[in-house]
Amino acid sequence: MTPRMMWWKIFSTRLQGIFPRKRGTPISKTPVNVTLTGPELTTLTLVDLPGAHFANDDPRMNHMTQSLVLEYIEKNTNSIIVIVSEVGDPTGDSAINLVMQKAADFRSRTICALTKPDKLRDSDDMGKRVAMNESSFTLEDNRFILLRGKDGTDPNEKDWDAEMTRIKEKKWFGRHKQYKDIQHVCGIDRLMDTMISLLAEKMITEIPILVRQMKQRKTEVDEMLKELEDSEVPESSEGKGRSRYEAEE
Hints:
The chain is mostly helical. Helices cover 46% and strands 6% of the residues. The chain has eight helices and three strands. The chain has helices at 3-18, 59-75, 94-102, 106-109, 126-131, 162-175, 188-230, 244-248, and strands at 80-84, 110-115, 144-147. The protein has a three-stranded parallel β-sheet, sandwiched between helices. Strand 2 (110-115), helix 5 (126-131) and strand 3 form a beta-alpha-beta unit. The radius of gyration is 26 Å and the shape is globular. The termini are far apart.
């Protein structure tokens, strides 16, 4: 275990003892905010929700994870990234079904990461068909991203840093007969590009709305200031609270 992983394990263990949990579950609804700063980092907020359980033996766990996910999806209009734990028909995935049910605009704001493509036979083109929007669940083009990452097959994986993992992943997709010709939807780099693109699209949509709201608010403030300028400060308490027009009458 690397020092970073050891630090995170200690940190997360301490958090578990601090935050109140929902009765009968190991889950807390108290958010943990982690802020990273640096000259090469972009302004981005990620909300990591718990995996949605459906087949868990404990129904309380199922209910709690589903309610947390639904609460976020319903009250936010932000982008959604769904992780499908293994490449397959996404319509059978519990998280995908939640998104389809509760986010009417899910096609325009959802990115679906398809993991473990190496679990499929080389002749199986399911991952490719899903990634190319050819399954029963569709999103906007290039919103399905295939990720491989670490799979435990290389004994040296534990020593890989993020850059080495990225390089190994890129090589694997590049030589795979199903994925070598769809590199534009494969790998962590493509996921980051897609997230940035989706963020840019949202900014293009939201900024004009924000500008209009700011202009409207400025107009309201200007009118309030004008009223204050036109009002006369009373010399005695008797005239307080009356406008100049009322005082003259």
